[in-house]
């Protein structure tokens, strides 16, 4: 199968282990196992549970305990609506492979996670891209979305909260997107891997799975739960649809590791404590970033409403990749070039890492931007 290289992942692979100040990171500062157990307040008994695990393949769709906990992140879902996957990256791939056939109309917003347009393109689908624009606060223009979907789209893929812009579709907006999908007869996939990191309220906005009968939510433990190392995600959607996903999943997943399943369960049993920590980090750090942007004459942005990333516009006549390479090589600060996300003229910053890394990185970036060119 021919597929376009994954721009962001290739950039990360190239520099992530070589940089000093990682402002390309999109996870809320990751937890160690010890920190997780301490937040859960249950070190001893979890270690006993871990030792008792017999390392079989385990329950194929994920343990009942875990699937019930994942269902609990939604308003109207239960165990049979949950399928556990290898990260959200696995969840997204399975959804596209299950639904999309050559010639199908697929609509994707852009910028977004590249899987949502490059996988259907590789399958030979008729992919229509709806550009998210600054003047709309990076929300999709609904007339453009309806036109792109037409009357027979197979799938509309959105990403809410959005990576890289931090734009957030609230429930009324999401319902309008669902109406467009309904009129077109389309499935609506929302990659909700950043759900739980809103800047306002309790931090969690409605899921597409709860507002639309053909809504599919993908998400994971990686971003808002700070546990990317578990490599554990899920698809939530109608039970019949998940049976179709299982046909694909048998070929590339079998099951997810039992140790990962246990630690994800422990984390979700303490979800309030973990999400409270995440909100504290994303809200505190965005205030730091916002003050920095206000003081930088060459930088502007649309302030994120959620997520862990922002898209910075820069007022320099340099390709984004060249700028990012000079920045990382001269200062050790790593951002992500817009070119890796198909939005040239911008830089993506991940602001949810350790607050000290953010402060140090921004200070070095100020020095870099102030140099005469
Ligand atoms: C929007 C989006 N979806 C999916 C993923 C993949 O996440 P996971 O670690 O759960 O596979 C990412 C990771 O950056 C992401 O930003």
Top keywords for this entry?
373 residues, alpha/beta, 7-stranded mixed sheet, 4-stranded antiparallel sheet, 13 strands, 43% helix, globular, binds pyridoxal-5'-phosphate
User: What is the helix/strand order?
Assistant: HEHHHEHEHEHEHEHEEHHHEEHEEEH
Give me the side-by-side strand order of the main sheet.
2-8-7-6-5-3-4
Portion of residues in helices? 40-55%
Rounded to the nearest angstrom, the radius of gyration is: 20 Å
Indicate the low-confidence ranges by residue numbers: none
Q: So how many helices?
A: 14
End-to-end distance, in Å?
Answer: 44 Å
- Report the sheet with the most strands, covering strand number, pairing sense and barrel closure: 7 strands, mixed
Mean pLDDT: 97
Describe the oligomeric state of these chains in a short phrase: single chain
Relative strand content: 15-25%
Q: How many strands?
A: 13
Hetero compounds: pyridoxal-5'-phosphate
Descriptive overview:
The protein is of the alpha/beta class. Helix content is 43%, strand content 15%. It contains 14 helices and 13 strands. It has helices at residues 7-15, 33-40, 43-52, 64-71, 87-99, 115-123, 142-149, 171-184, 208-211, 239-252, 258-269, 271-294, 320-331, 355-370; strands spanning 21-22, 82-85, 105-110, 126-131, 155-159, 187-191, 215-220, 233-236, 299-301, 309-314, 333-334, 336-337, 346-350. Strands 2-8-7-6-5-3-4 form a seven-stranded mixed sheet, with helices on both faces. The protein has a four-stranded antiparallel sheet with strand order 9-10-13-12. The chain has a two-stranded parallel ribbon with strand order 1-11. A hairpin with a 7-residue loop joins strand 9 and strand 10 (309-314). Helix 5 crosses helix 10 (239-252) and helix 7 (142-149) packs parallel to helix 8 (171-184). The termini are far apart. The model has no long low-confidence stretch (mean pLDDT 97). It binds pyridoxal-5'-phosphate. The site of pyridoxal-5'-phosphate has 13 residues, from helix 5.
């Amino acid at each position: 199968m021919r597929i376009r290289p994954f721009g962001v992942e290739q950039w990360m692979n190239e520099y992530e282990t070589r940089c000093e100040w990682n402002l390309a990171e999109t996870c809320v500062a990751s937890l160690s196992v010890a920190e997780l157990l301490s937040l859960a307040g249950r070190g001893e008994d979890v270690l006993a549970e871990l030792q008792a695990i017999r390392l079989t393949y385990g329950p194929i769709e994920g343990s009942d305990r875990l699937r019930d906990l994942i269902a609990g992140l939604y308003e109207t879902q239960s165990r049979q609506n949950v399928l556990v996957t290898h990260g959200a990256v696995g969840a997204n791939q399975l959804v596209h492979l299950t639904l999309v056939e050559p010639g199908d109309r697929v609509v994707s917003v852009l910028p977004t996670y590249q899987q949502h347009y490059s996988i259907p393109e590789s399958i030979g689908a008729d992919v229509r891209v709806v550009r998210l624009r600054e003047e709309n606060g990076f929300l999709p223009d609904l007339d453009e979305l309806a036109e792109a979907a037409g009357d027979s789209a197979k799938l509309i893929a959105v990403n809410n909260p959005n990576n890289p812009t931090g734009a957030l579709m609230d429930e009324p907006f999401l319902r309008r997107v669902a109406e467009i999908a309904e009129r077109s007869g389309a499935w609506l996939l929302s990659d909700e891997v950043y759900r739980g990191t809103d800047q306002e309220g309790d931090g969690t906005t409605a899921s597409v799975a709860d507002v639309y009968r053909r809504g599919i939510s993908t998400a994971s433990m990686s971003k808002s739960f700070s546990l990317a190392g578990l490599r554990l995600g899920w698809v939530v959607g109608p039970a019949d649809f998940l049976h179709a996903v299982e046909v694909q999943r048998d070929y590339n997943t079998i099951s997810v590791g039992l140790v990962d399943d246990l630690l994800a369960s422990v984390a979700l049993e303490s979800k309030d404590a973990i999400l409270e920590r995440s909100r504290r980090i994303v809200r505190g750090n965005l205030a730091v970033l916002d003050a920095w942007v206000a003081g930088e004459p060459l930088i502007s942005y649309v302030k994120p409403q959620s997520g862990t990333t922002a898209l910075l516009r820069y007022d320099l006549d340099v390709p984004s990749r060249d700028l990012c390479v000079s920045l990382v090589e001269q200062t050790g600060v790593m951002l992500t070039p817009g070119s890796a996300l198909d939005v040239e003229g911008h830089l993506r910053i991940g602001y949810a890492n350790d607050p000290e890394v953010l402060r140090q990185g921004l200070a070095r970036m100020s020095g870099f931007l102030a140099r005469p060119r």
